[in-house]
């Protein structure tokens, strides 16, 4: 690390008296240069956020880890932490709104319960470390000659030890609390870049929610002590926690419907949303199982060849198998297939139950002549994974099991309209 913009995240581990001496005492650091003040005023702080993210990534790389430390990132420890938090906010139920507290508890525990594989992976990857535990925008000063970070390393080891993402989220949530979610996003992305992290977006939401929730409790305590403004802060923090938990819910979205009704278009749009969901399409899976590339034609009559009963069973089993892996690792999944058979939908519903995921069933609908025109246009262009023809559309329409649990998404209008409708249904 360079000497001039120190002492970031060093005091407990490797600060030398020399670096500590160079720091002016905190009371001589100008308040208006606090990162918190700059962020709250909307000033441009990207370079500083990048620098902090880089330092934090290095700091975590050097942080201690061991089997004992890794336990703090496991399912049991996280459950205990949330339950402890939920008990801790009981005195503030009325202040925070009982319904909000209950939903926070329900969503957090549901997320944890289905994500055992994700937590095991984080442990195996060495992402559970002795970290910082208390990195706040208030403790960072942006001076002319660089950054100064007052190293308020948490002294209680139990509160420092955990997933490195907990540290990152601690700081990111502080930026959000200051009204700058864009800065929080920028910081999270920069950390991801410097650390080479590959976590699902949902895990960020979980840790952001946890920090907001803990701080809501602390604000509740301050309110009980009579601090003005603390009640509003507590409610805002609880709302922030709930927003993240809602966004981080794990969804299994089935996008079904007849050929040419816009399933692939809609599922790609859903998968390309802010949190980057996983899209798995039956066409690519079916051909992959047969050793074909997705865009290679396997066109055949309805129910024949690669579209016969056996390859179709194998395709849906594989879709569900791949979806399970992703859901257990905290990725929301969009499954693009016809879903015309009730038996296949039941497989998916069972998967959602087993992985504590929210099942959302969407059925794309367009009049046959619209679908036919689109299929014809698509065939003229070429390059699509779908082999469906107008004849296949007609044959499938005749043997489509009723799908009462699905929300119909009309796709006759512009693709953006269908996507907006679908986004509202999965939100
Ligand atoms: N809402 C829409 N408005 C206009 N064009 C659309 C819309 N949705 C899809 N399309 C176009 O219609 C064609 C068929 O759509 P898409 O490939 O998404 O259908 P599909 O349901 O996946 O079909 P298949 O079952 O054959 O895979 C594509 O060329 C796509 O660009
Ligand atoms: Mg398609």
TrEMBL record:
InterPro entries: Cell-binding_unc_protein, Kinase-like_dom_sf, P-loop_NTPase. It holds the Pfam family AAA_33. This is AAA domain. Residues 1-32 are annotated as: Disordered. Transmembrane segments: none annotated. Signal peptide: none annotated. It comes from the Bacteria.
